[in-house]
Amino acid sequence: MDKKPQTGLGKGLNALIPKKKLPELTGDFSGQIEIEQIKLNKYQPREEFKPEKLKELVDSIKQKGVIEPIIVAKVKKGYQLVCGERRLRASKMLGLSRIPAIVKENITDQEILQISLIENIQREDLNVVEQAKGLKKLTDEFNLSQQEVANLIGKQRSSVSHLLRLLTLPLEIQKELIKENLSFGHAKVLLEIENKDSQRDICQRIIRYALSVRETERLIKKATRHTLTGTGMPHATRRKQKTEDTQIKEIEQGLEEFLGSRVKILLRKKGGKVEIEFYSVKDLQRILELIQSPSQG
Questions:
Q1: Can you give the pTM of this predicted structure?
Q2: What is the DSSP letter of 155?
Q3: Cβ(271)–Cβ(297) below 8 Å
Q4: Which of 128, 198, 194, 118 is nearest to 153 (CA)?
Q5: Catalytic, out of 85, 119, 130, 176
Q6: Is 85 marked active-site?
Q7: Spacing of C-alpha 257 from chain mean position
Q8: Contact at 8 Å (CB) between 78 and 161?
Q9: Could you give phi then psi for residue 220, rounded to 5 degrees?
Q10: Can you list the domains of the chain with their CATH numbers?
């Protein structure tokens, strides 16, 4: 659903928005407005709308309606969305013509972006890369310092600084953050490496071997004791790792062909684990029967 229990940061926008700097969210008008008159928010910080989550919201609205109004700004021709794009999208998918809204008569572009960021951060709807891009818009488009941005969104300046630094990572690593294959903690460790190729190399190892943040730190410390090459690891280590990676890949492919399902092998310093994907209870039963059946040698 679009609405989460009000715990922690989810106590409402007014808890974080300074009254002197951002508009009260009681609005100048509340009621039903025509969906076709609403333009999307050009400052929307969210870039990814997960289909499964949107489907859940569609089902909820179908049963209970839109419980929490969206927020829009009054413009010359119609309205501009401030926050609530998931609710708006779900309502459109259901073919609704009207939606409950809080309409703001006087609101600036800066306030629109601020409210959009805060609302999504409170709901924990934004991944760290989306948060970083939203914060960068505040610093760049509105000429705000990191401290001013931190004050506006209710975060420490150091948190804002760490988030903004994520945008200096290679795009491949940013994509892994978005897919949640890497954590924010992993990203902060990778930022300690200056060489971009080294960052990519360590990133691949984190994912392949499911390394924790602590294990990643140890890996980087060990690597820096040697003379680093362009990829950030000693020649001998890279050759050994490449051979091991090839062997693991061949085993994965062999298991996938035998089981007819995707297989991933995750290695650790001692042992590891094998992950086998299945798509239904029936598919799981099929895989179990293959594993338990006598060898067809």
A1: 0.55
A2: -
A3: no
A4: 118
A5: 85
A6: yes
A7: 33
A8: no
A9: -70, -40
A10: 1-126 (3.90.1530.10), 169-224 (no CATH), 235-292 (no CATH)
